[in-house]
Input
Amino acid sequence: MNELIIYNSLSGKKEVFEPITDGFVGLYVCGPTVYNFVHLGNCRTFISFDMVFRYLQHLGYKVRYVRNITDAGHLENDAEEGEDKIAKKARLEQLEPMEIVQKYTVDFHETLAKFNNRPPSIEPTATGHILEQIDMVQKILKKGLAYEVNGSVYFDVEKYDNEALYGELSGRKIEELKAGSRELDGQDEKRSPLDFALWKNAKPGHIMKWQSPWGLGFPGWHLECSAMSTKYLGDQFDIHGGGMDLKFPHHECEIAQGHAATGVKPVRYWMHANMLTLNGKKMSKSTGNTLLPNELFSGENDVLDKAFHPIVVRFFMMQAHYRSTLDFSSEALIAAEKGFHRLMDAVSLLPDLKTGKTSSWDIDDWIKQCYQAMNDDFNTPILIAHLFDAAKFIQSVNMNQATLTEEDKSKLIEKINAFVFDVLGLKLIEESQGDELSTVMELVLELRQKARENKDWTTSDAIRDKLNEAGILVKDGAEGASWSKE
Ligand code: AMP
Ligand code: ZN
Output
């Protein structure tokens, strides 16, 4: 099998993946700020990295996947001053900040479970790692790369840039950044507009605050990821991911902080998933250009012609490469739904296919091509094209227009299951569950009919009542019994 190639945002090139420790991958992905329902755009990033997680596991790596929950320190408009996003929502909803955190963390988990995402190995929170964050600030201060003013600590970007290079991930040069930023006014505590907060002094009225060597305050937004990734994955780890919009300043700051604190660059491979767009523009809560997963599952949004199953939505996302933008539309989802059913119909036929002495298709070559696609920077759209080729072949064998040996059939079943279910994370969905229910109900009503013929009214009524309790209504008519769901 060929090697896994990953596009590294740091070098801007595809590179052969070589983990730091043989057989083990440390993967960190920036999680959500839990102050709102996750929108479909957020979900795309987490589904992209779920696929990466799944494929690494499929290749046999032991993966420690860490994805944080930002429950403090992320200020409005991603700014350095202002209200905490969570505290603001708590004020608006008249709840405790931790009630907001709980409410939207639960939503986040439930939503990702519907999309069949595997949970990460560790899901640390910012508020649970205040000590680690303070410790990191102290290390950076000791190196002379940060300074304290009025109870706040700022990272000294220009000083860091003299020793290392700031901006290598986003390709921004410090001179350009300076030219593009506003002048500091007399009120500013920072030495340079490029400096960013590691720790902020809590102004009166700021609710989410902790004791620190610099007084009561709270950590800067970028700091939590550096503190938690290095705590659970080491000073340097394999892969760091997140949405493309986090490249600057968030990830750039993470590199500078981590490097300053530990002396090594924290990440070997930086991966960025591209944006989901709606009407050609980035899906974003702040602009209102957004679609919520529940609207999609119920069909309740004007942009939708109908409701869609989460697994169909996942398939739609997998049909695009994670580094390409993807535009959402009802038509595109309808097309994806057709494709999904075509693929799943073939998958369902597979176990019952007749086998013979020869195979009229080169299964080994097909398997090789599937791995080639995934090893080329997780190219799921090419993988899906190969899966459609297999679906076509399965249909041909089913119609006796192609042949398959028993050995090849086993290989095909093994690899289809691996790619469709384990790697892409798809599932057989309701339609088939509906069919299963019909089959079971047919049997139950037949047994009830027998009881009635034997004048065993106790059994027949008990069956009806139990079904009723389960939300299934049984009606006795001239043609026999029929059933419906409440
Ligand atoms: P947030 O909760 O805003 O910090 O975002 C959580 C994750 O969703 C981050 O990795 C973002 O990069 C990602 N994200 C936000 N908007 C989109 C979008 N429209 N498409 C894809 N990913 C997004
Ligand atoms: Zn982060």
The first helix runs from residue 40 to 58. The CA atoms of residues 158 and 175 lie 10 Å apart. The longest strand covers residues 237-243.
